[in-house]
Amino acid sequence: MKTNLQFDFTVDKTAKTVFITREFDANPSLVWDAFTQSEILDQWWAPKPYTSRTKAMDFKVGGKRFYAMISPEGHEHWGLQKFTSISPKTNFKMSNFFADKDENPQIPGSDWDYTFSAHPDDRERTLVSIVIKNDSLERMEKMIEMGFKEGFTMGLQQLDELLPGLKKK
Questions:
Q1: Where are the beta strands (DSSP E) in the chain?
Q2: Distances (CA, A) of 61 to 34, 38, 39, 81, 110
Q3: Angle subtended at Cα 67 by Cα 97 and Cα 126, rounded to the nearest 5 degrees
């Protein structure tokens, strides 16, 4: 595992947008799979000690992922992601919401735009750019106040640790 991988996390309050760029030591196809297949997402999406469990996922335009982040005490915090655009292996977009256990989204949500590309200096490394546009400044500030940066950073680190094992399969 490389320890000098690029990571940028920037908040633009005026645009109500979070910009994240993260480098992974794996090829773009494998990293794409890690972001788009529920069996892999469930291994890294929630920051420890939480776990992630996908109840339903249909990765296609108009499809969704309905999942829970589960606390060590067993409390379930539901999320709903609705896929709005997919360009295989390079980009997908989704609307993201907190939800209740019956799949009812809590409005407002946010729009996520993922872009995957090979690192310009090493085609076996991947850059993932994530742009998260929020419906309101209040929602973005609440998300950050709840520890989004720390939690998402931990999840990405967990993915970084998971990738070498996925390469061997």
A1: 7-12, 17-24, 51-57, 64-70, 76-87, 91-99, 105-119, 122-134
A2: 18, 16, 19, 11, 17
A3: 85
Helices (H), the chain: 28-36, 38-44, 137-145, 148-167
Phi, psi angle pair for 9, to nearest 5°: -140, 110
Report the run of H or E that residue 4 belongs to, with start and end.
none
What are the pLDDT digits (tens) for 134-147?
A: 988 998 999 999 99
The answer for residues whose C-beta is within 8 angstroms of residue 3's C-beta and 6 or more apart is none
Report yes or no: 119 and 26 within 8 Å, Cβ to Cβ: no
Burial of 53 (0-12, 13-18, 19+ CB in 10 A): middle
Q: In terms of residues, how long is the chain?
A: 169
Q: Examine the pLDDT at 1 and tell me if it is beyond 80.
A: no
pLDDT at 101 over 90: yes
Would you state the structure tokens that stand for residue 65, as one six-digit string?
């992922």
Where do we find the tokens 């709005």? 84
CA distance 91 to 85: 8
Asked if residue 134 lies in contact with residue 16, where contact means CB atoms within 8 angstroms, the answer is yes
